Amino acid sequence: MKRPSNEKIDILRQDLFARIDAGNISIGEATRLMRKTLGMNRKDYAEKILKISHDALQAVETGKGNPTLKTLQIIGKPFGFKIGFVRNIT
Length: 90
What we know:
mainly alpha
């Protein structure tokens, strides 16, 4: 996967942040967008950036896993995300 330009990365990050702020994105989809924003394949992102297994990242991205809070913290850290409660305002 080719790394996007810095301008494209900024656009992708802002889109990701907007979707998270709006509350209309799953953890798996957000995780996948974080990885794609950096233009990395799943294996390299898991092993080189997050220091977790490819299988753990794949399970989160596909919504088939039950990640620990520690794994979620690791996944969110490169983009400045913290894990916590969010009030549902509808």
